[in-house]
Amino acid sequence: MTRVIAQRRILKVREAGQTHRVDALAAEEPLEIRLNGRPLTVTMRTPGDDFDLACGFLVSEGVIGTASEVSTIRYCAGATVDGSNTYNVLDVRLAEGVPVPTGSLERNFYTTSSCGVCGKASLDAVRTVARWTVHEDPLILRADVVSALPDRLRAAQRVFERTGGLHAAGLFTPGGDALCVREDVGRHNAVDKLVGWAVREDRLPLRTSVLMVSGRASFELVQKAVMAGIPAMCAVSAPSSLAVELAVEAGLTLVGFVRGASMNVYAGEHRLSDGG
């Protein structure tokens, strides 16, 4: 399935004049995730890595934590009136014995590509109990490694290179080597795709690893990191107050405004080394 990029004829206006050209756009389509045949959520995403997206979402919500807890994932045939498959509806079947979440998890609303938390009844509902703790994770990060992460993440953004319209999330080793990078129009989707890759590869919890995101550090992204057992998260932009609060409570190292050799450490500074 290759629907990541769409083509559109545009009018390009420049000081030298106006010309028509074909521009590459990041694709955005709805994805309905069903759990055991029941609609669970709808999110706007960039098509691709949909199975990872679904698994990562379920990890973030505390439904699953291992690949063995998922029986099957498949696209739903007959998703349209004429019976064709849009590849925009998929069904996740839990393995036998895995508890099906209560109706309180079901989000009967539209989840935008920029905010997956909208519509939660309360802050307490978001503070899902994680299967793993990151408090005692022995990760140590050198400042020079953190400084290099934005460029390394950017170098791996193949679709962004053509469209300029995608967020990215990358999982890196303490030495700065990329383990996995995912792109999406939604920042929370990019992280879900990353976490979903990890759970399907039986890598959870993601001990001694660092999550790098291309935008700001929101509360939800910090929550997703904690739920996946990631002990450190870095962002090129600012964190929110709730993101910092959760990072402190969970014992996660949170670094923002990573730009060149400068950065702000908002939580977990004991994990940052100057390399000396």
Please tell me the overall pLDDT: 85
- Termini, distance in Å? 48 Å
CATH architecture of the largest domain: 3-Layer(aba) Sandwich
Shape: flat
By DSSP (H or I, 4+ residues per run), the number of helices equals 7
Oligomeric state of this protein = single chain
**Uncertain runs with pLDDT below 50, 5 residues or more?**
107-123
Alpha-carbon Rg, integer: 19 Å
Helix content: 10-25%
Strand content: 25-35%
At the fourth level of CATH, the homologous superfamily of the largest domain is Cytidine Deaminase, domain 2
Reported by name, the CATH topology of the largest domain is Cytidine Deaminase, domain 2
CATH class of the largest domain: Alpha Beta
Strand order of the largest sheet: 10-9-11-12-13-14
List how many beta strands DSSP finds: 15
Number of self-contained structural domains: 2
Order of helices and strands: EEEEHEEEHEHHEEHEHEHEEE
- Secondary structure class reads alpha/beta
Question: Describe it for me?
Answer:
With 276 residues, the protein is α/β, with parallel strands linked by helices. It folds into two domains: 29-126, Ubiquitin-like (UB roll), CATH 3.10.20; 141-273, Cytidine Deaminase, domain 2 (3-Layer(aba) Sandwich), CATH 3.40.140.10. The chain is 24% helix and 32% strand. The protein has seven helices and 15 strands. It has helices at residues 50-60, 123-126, 143-155, 158-163, 187-200, 219-227, 241-250, and strands at 5-14, 17-26, 29-35, 38-45, 70-75, 89-94, 110-111, 141-142, 167-172, 178-184, 210-213, 232-235, 253-259, 262-267, 272-273. The strands form four sheets. It has a six-stranded mixed β-sheet with strand order 10-9-11-12-13-14. It is flat, with a radius of gyration of 19 Å.
